[in-house]
Amino acid sequence: MAAFIELQGVCRDYPAGEETLRVLHTIDLRIDAGEMVAIVGASGSGKSTLMNIIGCLDRPSAGRYLVDGQETSRLAPDELARLRREHFGFVFQRYHLLGDLNARENVAIPAMYAGVAGAKRRERADAILSRLGMGERLGHKPGQLSGGQQQRVSLARALINGGAVILADEPTGALDSASGSEVMAIFKQLHAEGHTVILVSHDMQMAAHAERIIEISDGRIIADRKTAVATPVKMLPRPPAAHDSWQALAGRFTEAFRMAVIAMTSHRLRTLLTMLGIIIGIASVVSVVALGEGSQQKILKDINAIGTNTINIFPGKDFGDMRSGRIRTLLPRDAEALARQPYVDTVTPLVQTSVVLRYGNINVNGQAQGVGADYFRVRGMELASGRLFGQIDVRASSQQAVIDDNTKNSLFPDGQEPLGAVIMLGTVPCRVIGVMKKSESNFGGGQDSLNVFVPYTTAMKRITGEYWLRSITVRVADAVSTAIAENSIVSFLTTRHGVKDFFVSNLDAIRQTIEKTTDTMRLLISSIAIISLIVGGIGVMNIMLVSVTERTQEIGVRMAVGARQSDIMRQFLIEAVLVCLLGGLLGICLAFAIGWAVRSSGSDFAMIYSPVAVISAFLCSTGIGIVFGWLPARRAARLDPVVALARE
Ligand code: ADP
Ligand code: MG
Hints:
Blueprint: E1 5-16, E2 19-31, E3 36-40, H1 47-54, E4 62-67, E5 70-71, H2 77-87, E6 88-91, H3 103-113, H4 118-131, H5 147-159, E7 165-169, H6 177-192, E8 196-201, H7 204-207, E9 212-217, E10 220-226, H8 246-266, H9 268-306, E11 310-315, H10 332-339, E12 344-359, E13 362-371, H11 375-379, E14 383-386, H12 391-395, E15 400-403, H13 405-411, E16 422-425, E17 428-436, E18 451-455, H14 456-464, E19 471-476, H15 482-497, E20 502-506, H16 507-550, H17 552-560, H18 565-600, H19 611-637, H20 641-646
Parallel strand pairs: 3-8, 3-9, 6-7, 7-8, 13-18, 15-17
Antiparallel strand pairs: 1-2, 1-4, 4-5, 9-10, 11-19, 11-20, 12-13, 12-16, 12-19, 14-17, 15-18, 16-17
Helix pairs in contact: 3-4, 3-5, 5-6, 8-18, 9-16, 9-18, 9-19, 16-18, 16-19, 18-19
This protein binds adenosine-5'-diphosphate (ADP) and magnesium ion.
């Protein structure tokens, strides 16, 4: 029968400064399936090095190593991991159990990497633990177990994937003699059942339990003797070959997810502090976008209510021109002439003056707005009750008034019927014929002022006594662009007046300015938020690097029991992504909380949370997790199992 394990001229060198230190010298060794072998030797003689090569944790520097006839020296790390999963079970002197998991979960880890379903592997773990006398301690964590009990858990872990070859490096070294003997008895029992057992010990008494003792000194085998007649070998049933189905992958994924959650919850404060950068970054991005969106939409709604195809003409050079009050050249005739231009849809002149409004014994200050019949249409204002005045009323300078909602509330506080009532505008009596709806818009008049609209002819003749206008509002014909109409108006009026003693403003220009400013603001604040996210990401990377360093031994153990590089990578990547996602989620909650606080403070700010912003925040945090978690995860995955295991 071919040897199950065969070393041919195996050497192992370690670099030591300029030179190399040869720790194993051309070892030739065959071990058959079912043997129980003890490797003994002084400390530093190379026993552990030899064990690591046998267990495919380490590779020989020279020579060939064959497992079940398969040459291992050219295998990739993941193929070595498969060999470890399928053939070997490791028992370490210091147990190397994962402290955050209980006995059952520790035992189940190798089965998880081998693709056994969750329920099945728990069942198998329970059965093996019960067999080793640990049935009462399934839910205990390593910290709650004695040394002997922990070693039994690690034995169970070595057995769960079959454990055809059990490799035990000083398994009793840390135990008192009673527990040591118990553990040895288990090894003998396993050997009797057909497991190949390879023990390392510096204790001859322990080694005497084996039927073959190999003595090693300074990296050379100096003796290899049988102490007893080999017991007839029972062949172990081969465990079913592991399959890499998508279910197995999903199982490993869930497990990695669970491990990430455990790692995060075992360092809650640290996790929270790590997330802070992400939380602040995401919260500011989402709030800024929501605020920008809210204010922009509010302003645009106001503008659109008036219509962007209107052009206002004012006397003077510009807004804030001190002399504009003395310019008296903007006349009703101009408005009439403009109304006849082909690019004009409607025109409404405006004169405006403050008056005392009086009804019964109520006196209030208000604005008399002398307007054309089309004013209401141009401004997008709606009637609540009654009617508007028409062209005929304008021509007749009739004393009819349309009042706004504020005026109605002030002059008719007790709910009297305003329609038909005669109110006084200063000394001029006017009959109320209509009431306007409350305006949402902030433009034209403001929210708090009281406005009474009368025909501009009435206002000029009877109230102001002026013959000039305060402004003209032109609604551009539908087919004409606002810019062209604006140019035409300017040249038309300049010709009429001889000089340009007026200026025009159009809301489309204002709207464009507003859009541009909010876009610039958004870009600016977003770039600040992105910087904060990058800083947050670097924080995540930093903590993940710390975490990898802290858990190097855990990584070594996982590799020893058969984790692939991708398994390790996935575990740390998931942890990084989870930290960022949770940070993102908290950030979004914070943003909503800010919005809620703003709203309940009664402020006028509107925040509009677009689903796009929320979704991009999530994608963004996932991206940060992947980008900044990648380096630490790769570092973890590329660790050398022997080096990782040796790290304290
Ligand atoms: P044993 O298990 O028999 O006590 P080891 O196999 O652990 O001995 O070590 C054998 C020799 O190899 C020792 O002299 C040790 O210093 C050396 N050695 C082990 N690991 C390394 C390493 N990673 N780098 C350099 N020297 C090492
Ligand atoms: Mg050793």
